[in-house]
């Protein structure tokens, strides 16, 4: 049993949704495109799962956040997709023969393949702790996870949650749990939250804010085991520092691994992802990779990176489709890394790279503040909390310019004004 398509998108997440939109915008004949997704629903904006989806009042539910609402593009409801295979896992790929084999036994062949398989959440078992299968231990990667997190949250209002991990999932879920009237303790191994991005000074602002909402922090340790009741539910979390936290539920956000396994040994990998060039093309000409799974050249930094953020998923998908359909007219992908988060009444944006020396500016006891990162005499990264649309555009613009910075004290004095006037 088999079918052949001109274009196949493997994966049904954010990048897949944006690639599909771009294909149809540029004109596609019926039957040319197929999307193969393990998820039983059409592509949706994954960031909603840790934000609007978890709200106690008027929570976001599909179809409201199908792609591509996040970039104010057309929203693609399931009806929109003319050719797609949903709820089907691809279990093997043969890049030489240009075929994919699905779990239902179908062979799908392609002329051009876009890999948009994203990533999977790391499990506690990979760090030697058992218990992920307990019904009140929650991960958050897809809609099924989000539904079960909501059910668990609803069953323990007023109870205690332990959040494992101080990254994006940990911070956003902790805020949502508090909004759902659950007592939260966050546990993570680093000295401060969001260690991949925040400086200690920035982290201290967010930790103080969370503490004012009742969140407790236990830093510099990891969990060593769970305690269970007779039905297999977790009742307490034991930490390596010897402490024991009673728990009605646990949320785990300890990082991800890109879904590359189908292509290992067939395509070149780098930085844990599938290596692509400036056209998002892998080491095989007929295969492209986009989103979380792609390791791509960041022109601005002169090196290959893998980024795990939605803006990259959207823009890399669009660029890959353009490169496929109009190769002569398409230049190299020139991407300015962009991350953001919204929790409680807080909202920040970051552009560029957080390397070198950080120069903080603004009012760290108020609601608008930020930082620039200076590396090799140039501004390479900018962060702003509580900015206006114009101010965010200004820090993005300034970061893209990579201006030379001679006097760090002067930059600190100018603060946000530097970005607004550069
Ligand atoms: P994505 O994970 O979206 O999609 C991958 C798809 O491939 C899935 O549908 C999966 O089922 C499918 N798949 C994988 N293997 C398959 C196989 N073998 N066969 C068939 N299908 C397969 N970023 C940000 O910038 N701001 C934010 O606020 C947030 N918030 C946020 C919240 C939560 C809860 C998560 C989990 C993530 C975020 N992110 C984010 C990150 C952002 O969502 C992420 O970078 C993008 O979803 C990446 O898009 P991709 O399409 O690459 O992967
Ligand atoms: P992360 O990489 O942001 O954070 C992982 C955290 O796990 C680390 O900060 C660390 O505190 C913790 N950790 C690592 N090893 C541990 C261990 N052995 N025990 C306990 N804690 C440990 O990853 P995440 O928070 O799981 O997020 C998953 C993915 O979702 C990422 O790709 C992220 O970019 C994405 N996401 C992004 C946003 C956003 O951009 N606003 C929001 C939610 C999720």
UniProtKB/TrEMBL annotation:
<dbReference type="GO" id="GO:0016656">
    <property type="term" value="F:monodehydroascorbate reductase (NADH) activity"/>
</dbReference>
<keyword id="KW-0285">Flavoprotein</keyword>
<keyword id="KW-0274">FAD</keyword>
<keyword id="KW-0676">Redox-active center</keyword>
<dbReference type="GO" id="GO:0005737">
    <property type="term" value="C:cytoplasm"/>
</dbReference>
<dbReference type="Pfam" id="PF07992">
    <property type="entry name" value="Pyr_redox_2"/>
</dbReference>
<protein>
    <recommendedName>
        <fullName>monodehydroascorbate reductase (NADH)</fullName>
        <ecNumber>1.6.5.4</ecNumber>
    </recommendedName>
</protein>
<dbReference type="Pfam" id="PF21791">
    <property type="entry name" value="MDHAR3-like_C"/>
</dbReference>
<dbReference type="InterPro" id="IPR048618">
    <property type="entry name" value="MDHAR3-like_C"/>
</dbReference>
<feature type="domain" description="FAD/NAD(P)-binding">
    <location>
        <begin position="7"/>
        <end position="316"/>
    </location>
</feature>
<keyword id="KW-1133">Transmembrane helix</keyword>
<keyword id="KW-0472">Membrane</keyword>
<keyword id="KW-0560">Oxidoreductase</keyword>
<dbReference type="InterPro" id="IPR050446">
    <property type="entry name" value="FAD-oxidoreductase/Apoptosis"/>
</dbReference>
<dbReference type="InterPro" id="IPR036188">
    <property type="entry name" value="FAD/NAD-bd_sf"/>
</dbReference>
<dbReference type="InterPro" id="IPR016156">
    <property type="entry name" value="FAD/NAD-linked_Rdtase_dimer_sf"/>
</dbReference>
<dbReference type="InterPro" id="IPR023753">
    <property type="entry name" value="FAD/NAD-binding_dom"/>
</dbReference>
<feature type="domain" description="Monodehydroascorbate reductase 3-like C-terminal">
    <location>
        <begin position="336"/>
        <end position="419"/>
    </location>
</feature>
<comment type="similarity">
    <text>Belongs to the FAD-dependent oxidoreductase family.</text>
</comment>
<keyword id="KW-0812">Transmembrane</keyword>
<keyword id="KW-0520">NAD</keyword>
């Amino acid at each position: 049993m088999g079918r052949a398509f001109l274009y196949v998108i493997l994966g049904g997440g954010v990048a897949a949704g944006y690639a599909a939109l771009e294909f149809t915008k540029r004109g596609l004949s019926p039957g040319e495109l197929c999307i193969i997704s393990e998820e039983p629903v059409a592509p949706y904006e994954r960031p909603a799962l840790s934000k609007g989806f978890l709200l106690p009042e008027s929570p976001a539910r599909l179809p409201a956040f199908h792609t591509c609402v996040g970039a104010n593009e057309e929203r693609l409801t399931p009806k929109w997709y003319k050719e797609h295979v949903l709820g089907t896992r691809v279990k093997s790929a043969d890049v030489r023969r240009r075929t994919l084999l699905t779990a239902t036994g179908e062979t799908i062949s392609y002329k051009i393949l876009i890999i948009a398989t994203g990533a999977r959440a790391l499990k506690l078992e990979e760090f030697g702790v058992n218990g992920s299968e307990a019904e009140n231990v929650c991960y958050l990667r897809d809609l099924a996870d989000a539904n079960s997190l909501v059910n668990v949250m609803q069953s323990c209002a007023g109870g205690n949650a332990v959040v494992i991990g101080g990254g994006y999932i940990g911070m956003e879920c902790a805020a949502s749990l508090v909004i759902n009237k659950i007592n939260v303790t966050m546990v993570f191994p680093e000295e401060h939250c969001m260690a991949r991005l925040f400086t200690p000074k920035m982290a201290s602002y967010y930790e103080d804010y969370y503490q004012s909402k009742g969140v407790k922090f236990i830093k510099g340790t990891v969990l060593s085991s769970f305690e269970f009741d007779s039905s297999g539910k977790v009742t307490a979390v034991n930490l390596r520092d010897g402490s024991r936290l009673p728990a009605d539920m646990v949320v785990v956000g300890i990082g991800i691994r890109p879904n590359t396994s189908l292509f290992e040994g067939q395509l070149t990998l780098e930085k844990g992802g599938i290596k692509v060039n400036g056209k998002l093309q892998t080491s095989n000409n007929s295969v492209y990779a986009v989103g979380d799974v792609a390791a791509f050249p960041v022109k601005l930094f002169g090196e290959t990176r893998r980024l795990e953020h939605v803006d990259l998923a959207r823009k890399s998908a669009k660029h890959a489709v353009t490169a496929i359909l109009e190769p002569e007219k398409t230049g190299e992908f020139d991407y300015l890394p962009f991350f953001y988060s919204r929790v409680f009444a807080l909202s920040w944006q970051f552009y560029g790279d957080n390397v070198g020396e950080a120069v903080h500016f603004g009012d760290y006891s108020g609601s608008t503040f930020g930082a620039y990162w200076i590396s090799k005499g140039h501004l390479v990264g900018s962060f702003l909390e509580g900015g206006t649309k114009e101010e965010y555009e200004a820090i993005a613009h300034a970061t893209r310019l990579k201006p030379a910075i001679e006097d760090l004290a002067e930059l600190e004095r100018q603060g946000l004004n530097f970005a607004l006037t550069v």
